[in-house]
Amino acid sequence: MNVTPLPPESPFEISKLKLYLQQHPEASSQLAIDHFIDFLTLVQEYKKLQARYDLLELQYSESILSSLIESP
After folding, report:
1. CA-CA distances (angstroms) from residue 14 to 9, 19, 23, 40, 70?
2. Which site among 16, 20, 33, 58 is 20 to 30 Å from 10 CA-CA?
3. CA distance 65 to 31
4. SS3 for 52?
């Protein structure tokens, strides 16, 4: 699987976010919660895709085995 990594955030963007969070500490907890919710959503999607992949892999293995048994 060829996955392109996300580009790293620029130091300017990080500094800007740190400054904002220092000036608005109440926003930092909400931002953390939002990121955690996003993370949980990704975990759920990953688990669904992994289950689908496992099923496809099993079906493929069974079809290969079946074709080997049926061939003379």
Report:
1. 7, 9, 14, 23, 61
2. 33
3. 51
4. helix
